[in-house]
Amino acid sequence: MENGKWDTLAGRLATALIALCFALAGVLPAHAQSGSVPIVRDAEIEALLADYAEPILRVAGVKRSRTDIVLVNQRSFNAFVSGRKIFINIGAIVQAETPNEIIGVIAHEVGHLAGGHQDRLRQQIDRAQTIAAVTAVLGVGAAIAGGLSGNRDAVGAGGGIAMGGAEAAQRGLLSYRRTEELAADRAAVDYLNRTGQSSKGLLTTFDRFERELSLAGRQINPYRISHPLPRERRVALETIAKESPHFNKTDSAALQRRHDRARAKILAYSYGPGAVESRFRDNPGSQAARYGKALSTFLNGSPRAAVPIIDQLIAESPNDPYFHEARGEILLRAQDAQGAVDSFGRAVRLAGGNAPTMQVALGHALVLAGGEANLRRAIGELEVAITLDPANPRAYQHLAMAYGRLGATGEAELATAEANFHAGRYEEARRFAARAKRRFNEGAPQWLRADDIHRFRLPR
């Protein structure tokens, strides 16, 4: 048979199978699978999301200690689960007017976790791959038979069989995912009812998605999407949601203030100058608006001007750890490292010793303040933070700086290896680990950890 015809057949089969692979890979966000999710760490927002999730996790029977909520630096309104982690975009928090909207999103994602949807999804992927593989083999067999007989139509039919199998596998998988999304929606309503919360926020989210679809003006094929259409999801839930005695229940004023503060903080750090003022123009004297103004002021080049704004907030709420944390960040930008040490230290004490990101900030300020006493204290604070949050690259970076300034080269190189390892820079991690191994006696705890990093290879 002519090579050109075989090339055409191979190209069509490859195109179909590659398309299927992309579809299968797309069952979770691509950046989550690749490990390149742009993560945001913030003690205040992490604590808020944990409080949103705690009652939902409890009634769903999902252990809080085994579930992490991760903030993603993306502006779209989105959330997803991967492993035992719930990922929530910063854009979802900014766009959500009330805590209840984010609580509804969390309840939906917990529905996936409690329902074991990821495990069953893997089974469906295996099934889809089997269907695609079998039909591809059948298609190739038919094409070969057609080629040997000189029947050009049979060659084309064989390629069609393979491509049709890939399409069937993809559609089957997407149909399964839509079913599981509806199941997670229903579970979310149940969790919200059992915790005495409204499911109105879920309906609000579906309305938002529907508006976005309408504005985009796109025609959607309902059989080629992984989630049901927003209108379909709303219709499926509206009746049972409105039957709940909690449907018209609103969030507490205190929780709304915390939610607005989180929005203000995200706007200040991620949305540029003027974003806070624009969002809170109707209530510029609110706590959230002034908090956002303080952060925006120091981030945009005027840290000294931000100090009196944050000091006024501290005067109103002296035991709020996050205002003291913000003051520490402002003073660091103003090159007042010792003042930042005092503010971060106060924040850590008020947080009750369970805010490792604050301790990392305190350790950083201590390193910048300098002096042997501050450096040794920095090591202690950072070691505690690492015990609570062992995968934080910034903690190891600051630890390396502290050890380096004290002349402890081996410990500095090991901490640098850890920082690179937890940041996913494995070649750099192995290089520093190899250097660290030469600084310690073979078999010592530091040598063993350096050896672990040096030997690490990503699974193929």
TrEMBL record:
Keywords: Hydrolase, Metal-binding, Metalloprotease, Protease, Signal, Zinc. Pfam families: Peptidase_M48. Residues 47-239 form the Peptidase M48 domain. The keyword Protease applies. This is M48 family peptidase. Its cofactor is Zn(2+). It comes from the Bacteria. InterPro entries: Mito/Outer_Membr_Metalloprot, Peptidase_M48, TPR-like_helical_dom_sf. One of its GO terms (biological process) is proteolysis involved in protein catabolic process. It comes from Oceaniradius stylonematis.
